[in-house]
Design brief:
Layout (H helix, E strand, L loop, with lengths): L1 E8 L5 H9 L3 H9 L3 E7 L4 E8 L2 H9 L2 H10 L25
Antiparallel strand pairs: 1-3, 2-3
Length: 105
């Protein structure tokens, strides 16, 4: 299982709404994430808008591609795109994994 961490930037004026949207992620979106290989997926948001995403998956590119083929992902990404700064395209296209430099295990 590969650990993946990525960063995105939420617009400061949209932080509260972004948090609120994630309190009730659509059940079909949750199901699609699980079914396409996104495990232990978490998002962390700093007060200045820095968003840290973490997940575990066998193959990140395959998991992203599988999600991209779902209709629910297209709808979710279209709704979420306006929340982000410095983003060309959909939020899921802006996820660039960071290099892991240490893991305790």
């Amino acid at each position: 299982m590969r650990r993946v961490c990525f960063l995105l930037k939420v617009r400061p004026d949209r932080l509260e709404e972004y948090r609120a949207r994630h309190e009730n992620v659509w059940p079909e979106m949750r199901d699609a994430l699980r079914e396409t290989g996104w495990h232990n997926y978490s998002l962390f948001l700093r007060e200045d808008g820095l968003l840290v995403g973490y997940l575990e998956t066998d193959d990140f590119e395959a998991a992203k591609e599988a999600m991209a083929r779902t209709g629910v992902n297209a709808r979710w990404q279209a709704e979420m795109a306006p929340f982000f700064e410095e983003l060309a395209g959909r939020p899921d296209e802006g996820m660039r994994p960071l290099s892991e430099v240490f893991h305790l295990e």
